[in-house]
Amino acid sequence: MKRLIFTLAMVIITPVLMAQVPAAFSYQAVVRNNSGEIVPNQTVKFRMTLLRDSETGTPVYAETHSVTTNAFGLASLKVGMGIPESGSIDPSSWGGNAHFLKVELDPENGASFTHLGTVQLLAVPYAFHAKTVENDKVDDADADASNEIQFLTKSGNTMTLSQGGGSVTDAVDDADHDATNEIQALSLSGTMLSLSRGGGSVTLPSSGGGDNWGTQAVVTNPSLAGNGTTATPLLIADNGVTTEKILDGTIGNADLANNAVNGAKVLDGSLITADLADQTVSTAKLGNLAVSADKIQNSAVTTDKLAGGSVTGPKIAQAGATTGQVLKWSGSTWAPSNDLLGSCLWNQSGTTLYYSGGNVKIGTLSGFTGQLQVQTAGSEVARFESAAASNWISLNTNGVRKGMFWINDNTLTIRGDEGVGINFKTDGNNERLAIETDGDITTPATGTNRHLLPVAYGYVNQMGVLNTAKSTTNVTATVTGSAGTYNYIVTINGVASNSFIALVTPGGDYSSFPRLMYESNTFTVNFMSHTGNTGQANNFSFVVFAP
């Protein structure tokens, strides 16, 4: 918040004796900021306090006023008509004591007041005291109020007050009525300051407290030389102009004479790219090997800072290169390297090397039509190696992976991704075996969706106990009846109803043969003897296919 400076003007309105005297008097203040500018149209708060006897005397009355300045910064209020904080205005005692007005302000219209000053109340506010004559017990022996009125008159240089009030004579008589012949003019000639019409003159000092440029020494810092006198005038000291003293881009070729700026005038390291206008440093301005690496900020010299043809052989350091070598960027610096003859088809993007213009061939094999060929006389044609325990070679189509050759925990897996089956072909393009996406293993002879592998197998003893099975959670067996009436019931879980085939092989008693009956996901085995008797007890093995 800017600090506010207040110009205060007190305006007192004299009360009319015949009318009711108001218990208030006017106060005005012009509010200015610390730059001397008025503060218009802003609401501020004043606190006015009446003190008795002295500037630090006893407070007898305090009040506050919220006032908005006008367009000229003027704030007007009436002391005695604000919001009371303490005490009251009592003019009956003003005739016997001096009174002072303490003024405080909060420019934010709050309650944080700043003391602006305390002034003594003079004649006009004491008109309040005159109001007490309404109760004056003095009897002037008549009821005529006009015979106490006095008049002030002037005759020549004598002023007289009527009703025996006396007179006074003005001792000054200029014997004319010309108001201009008393005006005096102030003039300066050299060090002589004079007041006209006999007002006298005074000689100003020529040294010490005055500023007599050309003979009087001035205070300087190390960037200036000389003391400002005729004998030793002020000038810029060597190394006195630093980067902070030069506005970026303001020095152009036209500002510098050839060879005008030498090493002694420029502080080492003080000139950076921003201090030089484009194209201002040409070859003629630089001596051979004058600009070394430590004088140039990293990446500061760009193409527009160099004039055409300005960087010649003598301007480039050898940097350790030998005959036939070139300088190559190592990632952090330029270093000598052998030249790579001929053109290169490979391109680099970050750490990736790529070639997109044709096929890549390693070796001399002819008739090659693919995009990558590796030929060697050795046993190992190519190697794909990773330190990870799980790694693979992806096979992609249009950016989408379709399958992979995958090594995981010392197991080689040929994997087809979602929607991709695996075919095995021999003798050219002849399909021999296929693994379909649902896991069915088929051949061209079986056709699709004809699974060659069994979905269940097992062994059931004479008592109907399933001793061996593909999975006891998928296959169960029970036996019903007794000797001579056995029926062995095998249930296959996880297959569609009536969609499987069971192959049954009898066990030790070869004098009977099995009969199979299918229902839903079960099949029943009933053994019949050669003589036609059914329900014989026997053990058997089974294999179930669900093509």
Notes on the protein architecture:
It is a single chain. By secondary structure, this protein is mainly beta. 1% of the residues lie in helices and 37% in strands. The protein is built from 1 helix and 37 strands. It has one helix at residues 127-130, and strands spanning 4-9, 25-33, 43-52, 58-68, 74-79, 83-87, 99-106, 114-120, 152-155, 158-161, 166-169, 186-189, 192-195, 200-203, 224-225, 235-236, 325-329, 334-338, 347-349, 352-354, 360-362, 372-374, 390-397, 400-408, 411-416, 422-426, 430-435, 441-442, 456-460, 466-469, 475-480, 487-492, 501-506, 512-519, 522-529, 534-536, 540-545. It has a 5-stranded antiparallel sheet with strand order 6-4-3-7-8, with no helix packed on it. Strand 35 and strand 36 form a beta hairpin. The chain is elongated and about 180 Å long. 8% of the residues are buried. The model is unreliable at 7-19 (pLDDT under 50).
Rg over alpha carbons: 59 Å
Which strand order does the major sheet show?
6-4-3-7-8
Helix/strand/pairing category: mainly beta
Count helical runs. Answer: 1
Shape: elongated
